[in-house]
Structure formats: C-alpha cells, structure tokens
Design goal:
The structure holds 2 protein chains of 2 kinds. Chain A is α/β, with parallel strands linked by helices. Chain A folds into 2 domains: 4-150, NADH:ubiquinone oxidoreductase-like, 20kDa subunit (Rossmann fold); 162-244, no CATH class. Chain A has helices spanning 15-21, 26-33, 63-74, 82-87, 99-107, 139-150, 162-168, 193-196, 213-222, 227-235, 239-244, and strands at residues 4-9, 35-39, 52-56, 77-81, 130-132. In chain A, helix 3 (63-74) links the parallel strand 3 (52-56) and strand 4 (77-81). In chain A, helix 9 (213-222) packs across helix 10 (227-235). The longest helix of chain A is centred in the first third of the chain and has 12 residues, at 63-74. Chain A is globular. The N and C termini of chain A lie far apart (42 Å). Chain B is built from 15 helices and 13 strands. Chain B has helices at 45-48, 57-62, 69-84, 90-120, 127-132, 134-155, 175-187, 189-202, 245-248, 272-279, 285-293, 306-331, 382-401, 406-419, 424-427; strands at residues 6-10, 21-27, 30-37, 164-165, 168-169, 214-219, 230-233, 250-252, 259-261, 268-269, 349-357, 360-368, 374-380. In chain B, a hairpin with a 2-residue loop joins strand 2 (21-27) and strand 3. The radius of gyration of chain B is 21 Å and the shape is globular. Classes of the chains: A alpha/beta, B alpha+beta.
C-alpha cells in the first residue's frame, strides 16, 4: 500500500508547497509512490489518517501549538519543509524587537486582539524527523528527502557551509567584491544558488552545525561593517536558532 | 417552500492560498449571518523591516508571498528606487516587465488549471484528473513549466527572486536564452488555445451572477498596465500612485475579521477582472480574440468572470513577452558586469511603488533615513482590498441560491471565493483578525 501523506501550513508564504506544484511532470511520478490525503492548497478532500506529514511555516502563536501536536499524534513521520518550519526563518526577524512594539506598529490600538509570541521553528513545539531547508526549499532536495524516507533511509543533508559549494562553483567571493555574505556559517545544500545569480548568501538555510559565528562576525566587521550591521546580517534568518542557544 | 434553515461553516476554504472561513446562518428563510473571515496567523512584515537596510527590503518583503514573490520584489524595488531617485535602464525595465509576465503566467495557469478546473469538472482536486484527463493535465503542466522557466531565466529562480536588485539586475540572461524562451512561448500557443477551448466548454458552469462594483487597477496610455501606470477606477478619475491612500481607505469592521478597503462605493475589486475592465483596449490582438470566444466585454460585473479574465491575461502576457523579447533583440542586448551591483547614492526620503500582481494592484510605501535604513513601511495587498468585495458578493449571491441544496450552496460560495484567487498569507501581513 502506498504511504499516505499530508501537507499543512502555519505562518509562512506557502512558497514551499508551491515548489511541489513546480515539480511539474515529476508530480505524476510522485503520485505513483504516495497517496496524498490532505493538501488544503490544492484539494478539497481531507483525512487525518496519514503516515507522513509535511509542515510549512513557523509557529507564531500559542493557539497553533495544539494543531501541531495533533499532526504529530496522527503522523508516523513529521517533516519540516522550508526555512520557516525548519529554523524559524524570516518570521524570527521580529523576535529581535519588543513584541508589543511590533504589534502596535502593524495593528495600532487593536494590537491586544492578537495572539502572538516569538516566531519559532516547529521543533520548538513537537519532535521533527526530517528537515528540508531553504527559502524556498528546492524541488530537488524535497524529492531527495521524500525518496530517503520512502526507502527508510536518513536523508543526506550537508553539514558543511555554503562556501564549499560556492568555491566549487568558482564564484568570486562576495567579500572580494566588497559585499557581505553569511555563507561561511550557513548550511550548504543549495549549491550556492544566490551567489551563482550574482548576489550574496543571505543565510536562508540556517546556521550550519558547529558554526564559527564569532569569527564570521569578525570578518564582517574587518571588511567594513559596523557591529550592529554585522549582527543584523545574522538576524535575517538565524533569529530563532540564535535565541535557542 | 418550507422556510429555509442553513448553518454553514467552511473552515479553511480549500484550493486557495492561505486560510479563510465562510460562516452562513439562515433561520426561517432569513439570512442572519453571511461572513468571510480570516484566521491566518499575522506576520508583522511592516514592523520586521523597520531598521533594515534598503539593500535588503526587497529580499525580506518577497517573503510576504510565495506565489507573487516576483511582484512583491518589484513593488519593493520600485518604492526604494522612488525614495532614493534611482533610475533603471530601458533594457532593465523590459526585463522586469518580462519577469512580471512570467509570474502572471505561472500564477494564472496554476489557479485555472489546478484550483478552478476541478470545480468545473466536479472533482475535489487536480489529482484524480491526472488519470481521468491526462491530456489536459499535461497541457497545463507544460504551460506552467514554461512560465517557471521564464521566471528562472529572468529572476534566477521561480520563487523569491535573486537577480532583481535596487538599480537593476545582478545578472541578466543572454540573448540566446531569451530568444530560446521566445520560441517556446510561440510554440505554446496551441497549448493555450487548447486550455481556452476546454474552459470555453465548461464556462456554462460558472454562475451567471452580477453585482455592480467599482474596479481599481493601474492604467497606462501606452500599454496593458502591469509594471507601471497610474491608479485608475471604473467609477472616478485616476491619480498618481503616491496618492494611493485616497483610494485604499483601509477600515475595520468590528463583526468581521479583516482590514478592508473602500473607495467610491462600499467595496471595490482588484485583479485580472479589474484590469480587463479598465484596460481592455490595450490587450494584445490574440487576447481580445480569446475574450470574444466568451463574449466577454468590459465593464463586466460578474466576479466569476475573473477566471476568464485570467485566461485572457495569460494570452496577453504570452504575446507581450514575445514582443518584449523581439524589442530587446532588435535593440541589441547590452551586457553588464558579472555580479552587477549598481552603486546607489543613499538618501533619506519616502517612495511608493505600485505593481499589478496576479491578484491585483499592490502598493509598497517606504520611508528611509539618510543612512538608508527603513524607518516606516506600509504594504497594501490585493487580497486585502478584495475581502470586503468578496463578502458583499456572498451576501448578494446567497439569497439568489437559497433554493439549492446545502452542498450546492457551499460549493457555489467556495467557487466565488476561489474566483478571486485570494492570497491570504499576503493579506495577513497586516490584517485585523477577530475570531467569531
């Protein structure tokens, strides 16, 4: 029998689920291997009977925790897809500010109506079995993780920084071009896609295992950033990971 | 007829982006409640970007929405460029217009093929269609892939673009890549015609419902306005984009859930139908032919026809992309340095950027200090502007369909919501949420 899979979303842009639609013809192949029983973005049917749950988005308020726990209870395997679910992602940018101020900036006097707490990765609430990093996740890595899970294997996710891939791609280092980059502390696996496109690594895949953050901040400052700007480079995607430590 | 009783609660309407609920209460034939509510978690982008550098704002605000990340990036760049007086080259302007066409094509094809078609064919999703209608599904997938190839080429990837930066592009495609895409676009015309034919055969399933409303969108004397223009309305005269607050007039309804917008009437509509109604004359020849297939003319007040307006826009974007690539080729593609990073003279100021994204007119409004850090931001999202119109449509439609079964009513109301192609993640970046 084909394993039953379900997709769920929390606070995020749904750009990761969009990558599933972007699989194009490969979707048909995927549908040969799994049975999709819940995917609100594309189907009306819904079932709570599933083996693998893919969860997109951060947990940003208490009321979402129950829904997450229910998903954990129903599923044998929970996979966090995309940066918001896997590492807290861009949502955790707000964790650096006073929550009351954040709410007032956006909602004014009605701020008290809203339930919100520090944005966090879903493994802050429930145990997670596998991660597909990236903002958005790439189709290829998603397929790799799905295949590994179906074969009962552990997905092979790089434990080295983006610089390794970037060097292999023969990019001119951002620092040499007078730009600033967090590739040295960011988990690889994206094939340095942003630098390949002429920009910098923004850190969307989160901190690599055992990152040398102090050394990276020193490099940023040595190359001309103020201390605040160096810290701010880290706050774009690492907000929840930094707080956790 | 027995007095109608109906309690309808559709939690998290499916096949739309984000979470929205429909609440209907009918007692003794009297409609007591008919609401469109948004329980999506708010995301606070306007607060998140305060204190960030001008060089990052497009990257951050792109994350408001996965589906229209190109549009958000472009509205963001335009606001930053307006604030700092940055000009982009004519070539970059054309390339940005192509990027926007790529997104428009991708989003409209996804909506029509994956989200709307199942309703018209009486199934719950596109998944069973893969085996019952494989030819049609493959046609849709082919078109979707081509649209994504375009976005990849212009933006460096399909979702959350990389190449689009303040002042232009970090990297541009080669002329060979552009002309190759052009040939594929030309080759896709039969696919588009096949989709148009399929939708034409199913169009009688779209409810014949009319409620007069106001339509707002960008207009331009030169083209079917998407990237640039001034704000136009079917009710009033237009205005430059920096006067947008006079059009959006956001307000709060205590019993309802969302921050909404109104202008000349109780509500207005934005999106493909609004653009079609405002800018019909500027559509490409083949797009007009497609509209004629459906006897579709401006001003059309049936919100279900937004689906057909999207189809017309698919044809328009396809034809206009071919034209833009021809122009770039004729002018000769100018090369630029690798890792291009245009020098920006940072200065304090405020700028407003408006772009037509798949779901309608989008505004980003930023204020920067003299160091180039954002001190204030406001983003007004198309779906926010549509929420009020969706609910008023529901309230007008419901009495006309009360004789139908509960299931049919539910489906018709869901189809209405889907016709707007709402993008709720976007709209909750700053929505007022109140739980009923």
């Amino acid at each position: 029998m084909k394993p039953k899979v379900a997709f769920f979303d929390f606070a995020g842009c749904e750009g990761d689920q969009l990558q599933i639609a972007n699989l194009e013809e490969d979707i048909l192949g995927l549908l040969d291997q799994v049975e999709v029983v819940s995917f609100r973005e594309v189907m009306k049917e819904h079932s709570d009977n599933y083996d693998i749950a893919f969860v997109e988005g951060s947990c940003t308020r208490l009321q979402d925790e129950d829904r997450l726990r229910q998903i954990r209870k129903n599923a044998k395997v929970v996979v966090a897809i995309g940066s918001c679910a896997a590492i807290g992602g861009i949502n955790s940018l707000r964790n650096y500010k006073e929550l009351d101020d954040v709410k007032k900036t956006v909602y004014g006097d009605s701020a008290k109506l809203f339930d919100a707490y520090a944005a966090r990765a879903i493994d802050a609430v429930i145990p997670v079995d596998a991660y597909v990093y990236g903002c958005p996740m790439t189709k290829d890595e998603f397929l790799h993780v799905v295949k590994a899970l179906l074969l009962g294997k552990k997905p092979d996710i790089p434990t080295y920084p983006v610089c390794v891939e970037c060097k292999k791609n023969e990019n001119v280092c951002a620092f040499e071009r007078g730009q600033f980059c967090v590739g040295p502390v960011t988990r690889a696996g994206c094939n340095s896609c942003c630098v390949n496109e002429g920009t910098i690594c923004w850190g969307c895949r989160g901190l690599v295992d055992n990152p040398n953050e102090n050394s990276e901040k020193e490099v940023l400052i040595k190359n001309g950033l103020t201390v605040n700007d160096a810290i701010s480079k880290f706050s774009l995607y690492f907000g929840w990971q930094e707080r956790k430590k | 007829m027995k007095e109608r009783e109906l309690n309808l609660e559709v939690h998290h309407v499916t096949r739309v982006e984000g979470h929205g609920n429909i609440y209907v209460n009918v007692r003794d034939g009297i409609i007591e409640k008919c609401e469109w509510a948004i329980p999506e978690a708010p995301r606070f982008f306007e607060a998140m970007v305060v204190g960030r550098s001008y060089s990052e704002l497009h990257h951050v605000t792109s994350r408001i929405c996965g589906i229209c990340s190109i549009g958000h990036t472009l509205a963001s760049l335009k606001a930053t460029e307006a604030a700092m007086g940055i000009k982009i080259s004519d070539q970059d302007l054309k390339l940005r217009k192509l990027a926007l066409h790529g997104e428009n094509l991708q989003s409209h094809i996804l909506h029509l093929g994956f989200l709307v078609l199942p309703d018209l064919l009486g199934v719950g999703s596109v998944i069973p269609l893969a085996s019952s209608n494989p030819k049609e599904v493959k046609t849709v997938l082919r078109l979707h892939r081509l649209a994504n190839e375009m976005s990849d080429l212009l933006c460096g990837r399909t979702t959350h673009p990389q190449r689009l930066i303040p002042g232009g592009f970090s990297k541009i495609p080669s002329i060979k890549e552009l002309t190759a895409v052009r040939e594929k676009l030309k080759g896709s015309i039969p696919d588009v015609q096949a989709v148009a034919g399929l939708i034409k055969s199913l169009a009688p399933k779209l409810p014949d419902f009319v409620r007069e409303t106001e339509f707002i969108g960008l207009t331009s004397p030169d083209e079917y306005a998407l990237y640039d223009g001034k704000i136009g309305s079917t009710d009033t005269s237009g205005a430059p984009v920096n006067e947008y607050l006079a059009f959006t007039n956001e307000y709060i309804v205590p019993i309802s859930t969302a921050k909404r917008a109104k202008h000349a009437r109780e509500s207005y509509m934005v999106g493909a139908l609004a653009r079609f109604n405002l800018n019909y004359d500027k559509l490409s020849p083949m797009a007009k032919e497609t509209a004629e297939l459906f006897d579709f003319k401006p001003v059309c007040h049936n919100p279900f026809m937004n689906n057909i307006a999207q189809l017309v826009e698919v044809v328009n974007s396809l034809e206009d992309s071919i034209r833009l690539i021809n122009e770039i080729e004729a002018a000769g593609l100018k090369s630029q340095p690798e890792y291009n990073n245009p020098e920006i003279k940072v200065k304090a100021g405020r700028g407003v950027g408006a772009v037509e994204v798949p779901r309608g007119i989008l505004f980003h409004d930023y204020t920067y200090n003299d160091k180039g850090y954002c001190t204030k931001a406001n983003c007004i999202i198309p779906t926010n502007q549509n929420h009020g119109n969706i609910e008023l449509d529901m309230q007008s439609l419901l009495p006309k369909i009360l004789d139908k079964s509960d299931k049919e009513i539910e489906l018709t109301l869901e189809m209405l919501v889907r016709a707007y192609d709402p993008c709720i993640s976007c709209s909750t970046h700053a929505i007022k949420v109140h739980f009923v």
